[in-house]
Amino acid sequence: MQKGGIYFFLVIFALTLLALLKLYSPFLMNLLIAFLLFIATQNVYYVILKYIKSPLASTFLMTLLLIILCFLPIFYILLNLLNLATNLELGNFQNFLLDLQMHLGEYGKEIFAYLPDLLQKEINNWLAHLSGIDWTEVAKRSIGIVAKISQNSLYFLSDTLFILVFLFFFYYYGGALGQYFLGLIPIQPTYVKSLYEEVSAVISVVFYSSIFSMLLQGALFGILMAFLGYNALLLGVFYGFASLVPVVGGSLVWLPVVGYELYLGNYSYAILITLYSIIVIATLADNGVKPFIISFINRVLIKTPLKINEMLIFFAIIAGLTSFGFWGIVFGPAITALFIALLRVYKILYQDKV
User: Fold this and answer.
1) Contacts by 247-251 with C-beta closer than 8 Å and gap 24+?
2) pLDDT for the residue numbered 223
3) Cβ atoms within 10 A of the Cβ of 327, count?
4) Are the C-beta atoms of residues 20 and 155 closer than 8 Å to each other?
5) Where would you find the membrane-spanning parts of this chain (predicted)?
6) Taking CA 322 as the corner, what is the angle to CA 241 and CA 144, rounded to the nearest 5 degrees?
7) Gap between the Cα atoms of 212 and 44, Å rounded
8) Which residues contact 58 (CB under 8 A, 6 or more apart)?
9) Taking CA 221 as the corner, what is the angle to CA 218 and CA 224, rounded to the nearest 5 degrees?
């Protein structure tokens, strides 16, 4: 082909690519999420395929499994938030906050009387700031946030449907698509496979460890809530998803429950929930059991051993949540792992030749 023909082809190809990006831009994020979920769960899919022998049946089963584990609990939470925003009266919620503030002020002074003077002074200053809060505005904003989350559930539903459709096709045609694109990339297939396997290993470890940890912590908190007479399923699901948030984690759930028990005057229940959440769930289940979960995942499900420090993965999750929201749990580690893997390939391809 002549130079003029090559330039013409490149221009037409670039314009067509831009047109495709414009055409499918509403679905690009859903497509990327589906692709990352496929990368994270492909090992399980191939295990299922090995026993069932039918690609179509294996694809249906794997998609159904992800719906049950990932999407149904989210819709359950959204439906309950919608119900809460519909039925909660602003006046009653405001009175609850005011009563809780009064209880903390009254009983707090008796409890804090046994603490050192310096600590008492700091707590009294904190209580003084607490008394100055406009609880009417807090109540309005809280209900507004819940209502907005509930309204966005329709958009989440449509996004979920597209993600599941894309995910289904990735499972069913993933092998053929992989071979096709492998032939288009102008890098040795061994390097491309190395990049893919390293990114896949990181995403898989993050995904599986998050799912196992979420199920374990949610179940433990749900057991305690059932014992205390709460809606164990709802609070357990809430706690499971809250545990995915770095640093604060399950405190987003158990602290409001403790506040409600203090409001009712059930101090023993409040102490029990606090100690159980901190010692049993946060310390033993999360910090104690999680390393064994990650070790099990590396040994059984992951073919390529991790080459990235766990602390880097932790910060990648935080950065992903900050930049992309909920799905940043997968995006952050994926982008970080891809960059580090590309640096390794660069070192092999170029630096070793210098």
Assistant:
1) 247/318, 249/282, 249/286, 250/217, 250/221, 250/277, 250/281, 250/282, 251/277
2) 92
3) 18
4) no
5) 6-24, 31-48, 60-79, 154-174, 201-225, 232-255, 267-285, 306-324
6) 65
7) 14
8) 45, 48, 49, 52, 171
9) 150
Domain boundaries, the chain: 26-184, 187-354
pLDDT of residue 28: 85
Q: Report the C-alpha gap between 163 and 236 in whole angstroms.
A: 26
Compute the average pLDDT of residues 298-310. 62
CA 140 to chain centre: 27
CB 234 within 8 A of CB 80: yes
Identify the CA nearest to 269 among candidates 310, 224, 212, 335. 224
Confidence of residue 189 (pLDDT cuts 50, 70, 90): confident
pTM of the model: 0.71
**Site of tokens 């599941």:** 164
- Structural element, H or E, at residue 226: helix 189-228
Averaged confidence pLDDT in the chain: 75
Burial group, residue 259, by CB count within 10 angstroms (0-12, 13-18, 19+): middle
